[in-house]
Predict the 3D structure of the following.
Amino acid sequence: MAGEQGVKLLRKKLYDEIWEISVTGVAKKYNASYAGLLKMCKESDIPFPPSGYWTKLTYGKPVTKTPLPDSLIEYVTIPLNSSEMRYKEYFNKTDRDLKNKGTKELIVESENAVENKISLPSVSLLFLSDDEREKVSQAVLSLNSLTEDSKIHKKILAYRSVIKEWNKNNKKPKEAKRSYSVYYDRPPFLTYVISEEQLPRIFKILDALYRQIESLGGSVNDDLSVQIRNERVTLEVIEYQDEIKHEITKQEAQAIIKYEDEKKKYKWASEPNIRKYDYIFNGRLRFRIGKDNLFRDKDNSIIESKLGAILIELYEESEIVCINREAREAAAIKREEETRLREEQHIRYNEEIKNVTELENEALDYEKAYRIRAYIKAVEIINSQVDISEDLAAWIEWAKEKADWYDPIIAREDDILGYRQHRNNNDYKIIKKYGYYW
């Protein structure tokens, strides 16, 4: 039942649904806030499946369902997934924080001594425990400035060879417009859209972020993506380019003159392809996390002044990646279940067809046995007024044996023909003569 604050359910019912369709499934079912649902479960002491539970269940690995602890709480309210509820929760909690301990502001200084105040909103990172949120807050504080550490992260050092090799094989002109859209296969991270001059600066930024992520229990992958809360999170970095009018080079001028001369003589003359603009890297960077979270160099602030906010967004993105992964896993489980049910239905259908066909074949044999016995009976009646010869008596006994051989109920074994396969199709049971050679 939906109220002003959310959907009210029995605590036991919510527990059962979470372990049946996952936290993500329950959030979607009731249009609830995923982060709010997790928080409410923790507050109401409702256990939920750990990370990897559904994957193990899908592949038939052993899993453990945490029992529901006893509690005086009978009903719980699931928070709705709406902006109004989200902001209401934010402002209410912010008011309490202001009364209790004041606004938490993180001062981040850039290399150029540009100061920017970054607040860790109360509504951020709700999917983390209070202890985890505090650790992230401390990591954000540690990103006040970039340290002049001579040792760059080992993953970055190893990755430099990937950048060098790819750039060496890149055939694009230096002044060409750089965009990932021109490639069918996306180039590796930090290639093509970054000038060599900006790479040391980017390495320094990444080094600072990586060290804090590792201090929080995360890790760095070989492709410089990161593992946060066991989820792979990627970061896109590009350098902006200035568009300037292209100045014709001496070689291009000669190609134009040659083309003009050939055009007067030949129809097939090919016009040289000379671009109108050159695109020059300008040193301004853009970091993107997920689809919409952008951090740019601006006139009054640079990327280095936003490392705390970037770290927070990386954690927020890890939750989105987790939700999407669980949704994919749930969809895969659903598809597999639907496939299994279809296959079982096909098997049951085919088995039923087989049984019905065998029943029909047995009934046909029984009908033949009945007709033979009726024929024998008629012969006996016709000859009842006379003495039956030995040959006729022998034939009657032989015919009765054949009727029993045909009858699937008696299923007599014949000395010559053996057992009749009553369930088989008549085409396989038809009595045929052998040829001269068996």
Observations:
- Confidence is low (pLDDT under 50) at residues 82-119.
